[in-house]
Write a structure and sequence with these properties.
The chain is α/β, with parallel strands linked by helices and 303 residues long. The protein contains 11 helices and 11 strands.
Length: 303
């Protein structure tokens, strides 16, 4: 059980205001200050810096916050497990990004459920940034994400390597067939929102060519891969996304790839979890099992 002063500290980390923390905890502001001072004396460090009315965490404060948040998450998970009883079916809560969730994870998840018919599974869809935030907050056990992310303090396991391609409607006509990415700047770009892995990979590729999303003549931002594909079918522009999401449309001849120098790119989908959790090895085994099932399903499809 976490010390009540740790609870005070974590609330103060969220608010960065001792008065607000006191209000949320229904205690006095001097009590908040006393709790923080106790922790500072116990660890021999300063946890907060105060400059005028601005309160910030010190580097030691950040380290303690991250460790204590993980401990709080683990404690909550342990409480739930103990309350459910030793014979309760396994509970698995994870998040997947839009591309993975809509097009790549259904088959291995179905195989997992066949192998573990009593398992209680909860799946959350979101972009990479939102899922990592939920992972840090202890709301999910792990995530399957695309794009680039900070791996500090995280365990990771590659799931698959996918092609990242440029695409448009099969009937789309260019004034001149594009050869390089710059040749598409006069087109309408259909793109995911900021925070998505797909958007991050595109922005990184553009930056290597000294370009930005804003350099396209027109932009339409859509919050789902399915929405982007729908607009491409109606010939509303060009887009960049994972080929796995396009296979059906390419096979039916509704969409086509745009052959560009430097494309397709190849990028990993990866499982990620908090390496500091006492449940990290258990989570890693679940991720490894899903990887195994995903490969088996892929081999079955190819056969």
């Amino acid at each position: 059980m976490l010390d009540f002063r740790v609870r005070t500290f974590l609330t103060a980390c969220d608010t960065l205001n001792f008065t607000k923390a006191a209000r949320e905890l229904c205690i006095t502001q001097p009590a908040v200050s006393q709790h923080i001072r106790y922790l500072e004396e116990s660890y021999g460090v300063t946890l907060f810096s105060h400059e005028g009315k601005v309160t910030r965490l010190t580097s030691a404060g950040i380290a303690l916050r991250d460790t204590m948040r993980q401990m709080a998450t683990d404690e909550a998970r342990l409480r739930e497990r103990l309350a459910s009883g030793a014979d309760a079916p396994a509970a698995v809560s994870f998040g997947v990004t839009m591309t993975v969730g809509e097009y790549a994870v259904a088959a291995p998840l179905a195989a997992y459920l066949r192998r573990h018919p009593q398992a209680r599974v909860s799946v959350t869809l979101g972009n990479t940034a939102s899922l990592l935030a939920r992972l840090d907050a202890g709301e999910i056990d792990f995530a399957l994400v695309e794009g680039n992310f900070d791996r500090t303090g995280r365990g990771t396991l590659p799931y698959s390597t996918e092609e990242f391609v440029a695409a448009c409607a099969s009937g789309h006509r260019f004034a001149r067939e594009p050869r390089v990415l710059d040749d598409l700047l006069d087109q309408r770009l259909v793109v995911r929102e900021r925070g998505s892995g797909t958007r991050a990979i595109l922005e990184q590729s553009l930056a290597l060519r000294n370009l930005r999303v804003e350099d396209f003549r027109q932009r339409v931002q859509v919050g789902s891969i399915h929405g982007i594909i729908q607009l491409l079918r109606y010939d509303c522009g060009v887009s960049f996304l994972y080929r796995t999401a396009l296979e059906g449309d390419l096979g039916r001849g509704e969409l086509r790839l745009i052959e560009l120098e430097g494309f397709p790119l190849r990028h990993d989908f990866a499982f990620v979890w908090n390496a500091g959790s006492v449940f990290a090895e258990e989570v890693r085994r679940t991720c490894a099992e899903l990887c195994e099932l995903g490969r088996a399903e892929l081999e079955t499809d190819r056969a």
